[in-house]
Write a structure and sequence with these properties.
The complex is a heterodimer.
Chain A lengths: L2 H27 L8 H4 L7 H10 L6 H13 L13 H36 L4 H15 L2 H15 L18 H39 L2 H8 L4 H23 L1 H14 L5 H10 L3 H29 L7
Chain B lengths: L3 H10 L6 H14 L1 H18 L1 H4 L29 H37 L1 H16 L2 H10 L6 H12 L1 H14 L3 H8 L4 H40 L7 H8 L8 H27 L7
Chain lengths: 325, 297
């Protein structure tokens, strides 16, 4: 199988997967008893019952639930995610307003944690049983035993409220005019420090363990002995021969766990009032806004599926054996 | 008729079969060697006992109310919360709920993961393909998103509902490990022997393969318990929990508003979460080494 056929085949699989996911989410949303229009009446004291009936028929809520699902699929295929029950705005517009801050947060956390985890993982594996290995492993253990949202709260308490080093929430300081775009950027970066650090803390702990154990395994292989026997410098053996192979399982893991990272980011967004998809999801789940939650879940699912796909493709490029399976 | 040499041969190859108790003792002996694993076991045991004997060891009644927001002191070791209840008492009683969440969700995960993994790994073929496709799809979905989507729509959110949703979506990793164990074990000579002696599929699965796959199942289950406790706490903190079951997450959610001035209100329930998780992780790591389980390919 060539790389191209592999990519095409792997991409086609996404389509049925996507519809299977949409079915799961749709079912989950409709599992709870109660009127779906609760989202519309939420927080409003009086609403004309006639208007509610009109909304019901306009949004197809008078149809049986399976029919509603197919209506959703039909509209989705035309690129229509429907309208929010809460504020009647198009769901796609609501999502596109919120997607950039989330991507920024996740990307920053991802890049930093991969860099830190790979460096520490290699050091720990190469100096197996050394003090630095023990310290890094202990740090990782503490890192992933700590509840993410709790450490975020504690960080706000200490670094934002007590020491006043960083702002408590938001993406930029409100109510001041910045003398230059540079100052605005600086202010934004200040807001980024705490949420990104918390995400990096948890995420690095996981990746570090992966890199370390994968690296340890590779370092025990025969071809490493061969490379050393050839008289290659240790640096070349470790970075060129060992690390490249050790990173293979890490690539797959990255792809699978992007959803997990999103979950972490959602909580952090909520705590730091970061105007991204996670905070958005919590708000609109409180409004019980079905179309928004459905659309948002599917956008997240697409992001996760694409991350998986790119991880698989990256793996296939890095390791040609996979294509023949 | 047996010749003498044949009889001798039989005597030599007579299999030594250790009893269950001996096997357990063996695991314990290996576990004992690791200080980390012992520490983990100690923490887990401590938390479990605290949960079980909460009424005996808690200094106050969970409903008792005194002065609100008192700092930690010898009278109230963890201080009091916003409504004047003793925080140490609440944390001890919270262990009951949080440990229940972790254990119950893991039980569900084990049950579904075992059935799916066994069927897929043993029978293979078409059914394996279908089951693994479903497993992969569910594995990619963020648990927190599923929890929010499923639980937020309910007017009354009971703790059991949260446990149910977590278990229903938490099994894929378990299923994958069980499947790969079964794939390997099904090719072994002892399974071949059992098949040739006419043992039924279910007998082979339950009597011959499952006991050999138990190690990895136990290790994964141990390490997944803190996850479920975390997810429940996070969900509760985000406002979608069951406030009538005062888990550690509920304490954090209620205490958040006062945290800026009364640090202890969120510090102690969080530490309880941290130490419980640390305990299970250390214990899980130790079990993995003692049972000689290979995780990840």
């Amino acid at each position: 199988m060539t790389l191209r056929t592999y990519i095409i085949r792997r991409s086609i699989v996404i389509i049925p997967t996507f519809f299977f996911i949409s079915l799961i989410i749709f079912t989950l949303l409709h599992l709870a008893p109660g009127d779906p229009l609760r989202g519309v009446t939420f927080g409003r004291s009086k609403i004309d019952p006639e208007m509610l009936e009109e909304l019901r028929s306009r949004w197809g809520l008078d149809q049986p639930i399976p029919v509603q699902y197919f209506i959703w699929v039909g509209r989705f295929l035309q690129g229509d995610l429907g309208y929010s029950f809460h504020n009647q705005r198009p769901v796609s517009a609501l999502i596109s307003e919120r997607i950039t801050p989330t991507l920024e947060l996740m990307l920053a956390a991802e890049v930093l944690s991969v860099a830190i985890a790979v460096i520490l993982g290699v050091i720990a594996a190469v100096k197996h049983y050394s003090i630095s290995d023990a310290l890094a492993s202990l740090g990782a253990l503490v890192g992933y035993s700590t509840p993410n949202f709790w450490i975020a709260l504690m960080a706000i308490l200490v670094f934002a409220l007590q020491l006043r080093w960083f702002p408590t929430s938001g993406t930029i300081t409100l109510g001041i005019t910045f003398s230059s775009p540079f100052h605005a950027l600086l202010d934004h970066l200040e807001h980024l420090v705490l949420p990104v650090s918390i995400l990096v803390l948890g995420w690095t702990a996981y990746l570090f363990r992966m890199v370390r154990s994968s690296m340890l395994e590779v370092l025990g292989q025969d071809y490493i002995t061969t490379a050393r026997a050839k008289g290659l410098r240790e640096r070349v053996v470790i970075y060129k021969h060992a690390l490249r192979n050790a990173l293979l399982p890490v690539i797959t893991y990255e792809g699978i766990s992007i959803g997990y990272l999103f979950g972490g980011a959602a909580t952090i967004e909520y705590i730091f009032a970061w105007p991204g998809l996670g905070q958005f999801m919590v708000d609109y789940a409180n409004y019980r806004d079905y179309p928004t939650l459905m659309g948002l879940s599917m956008i997240i699912a697409i992001m996760v599926l694409l991350a998986n796909l790119s991880a698989d493709i990256a793996y296939a490029i890095a390791d040609p054996r996979i294509r023949y399976e | 008729m047996k010749s003498r040499s044949q009889a001798e041969e039989e005597k030599k190859t007579k299999v030594y079969k250790p009893s269950r108790a001996t096997q357990l003792f063996d695991v314990w002996r290996k576990l004992k060697k690791s200080k980390m694993a012992l520490a983990g076991f100690g923490i887990v045991l401590f938390m479990t006992l605290a949960a079980l004997f909460a009424p005996v060891i808690a200094p106050y009644d969970p409903g008792w109310m005194g002065s609100a927001r008192l700092a930690p002191s010898p009278v109230h070791l963890f201080g009091t919360d916003a409504s004047g209840r003793d925080l140490l008492t609440l944390v001890i009683y919270g262990a009951r709920i949080s440990l229940y969440v972790g254990l119950a969700a893991v039980m569900l995960e084990m049950f579904i993961g075992l059935v799916v993994g066994m069927v897929a790994g043993y029978f293979g073929g078409k059914i394996d393909e279908i089951l693994m496709r479903i497993t992969d799809v569910i594995l990619t979905l963020p648990m927190l998103m599923l929890l929010i989507v499923a639980v937020a729509m309910f007017e009354v959110r009971s703790i059991h509902l949260i446990v149910l949703v977590m278990g229903v979506f938490g099994w894929p990793e378990m299923a994958r490990y069980v499947r790969s164990e079964f794939l390997t074990l099904r090719e072994t000579t002892f399974v071949e022997a059992a098949t040739s002696m006419g043992a039924s599929s279910w007998r082979i699965i339950l009597r011959h393969i499952l006991p050999n796959a138990l190690s990895i199942i136990i290790v994964i289950a141990t390490m997944d318990i803190p996850w479920y406790i975390f997810y429940e706490a996070t969900l509760t903190f985000l406002g979608f929990g069951d406030l009538s079951s005062p888990s550690w997450g509920v304490l954090l959610e209620r205490g958040y508003d006062f945290a800026a001035y009364q640090w202890w209100i969120i510090t102690f329930p969080g530490l309880a979460l941290f130490f419980t998780s640390l305990g299970f992780n250390l214990f899980g790591d130790g079990l993995r080494d003692a049972l000689d389980v290979k995780m990840r390919e």
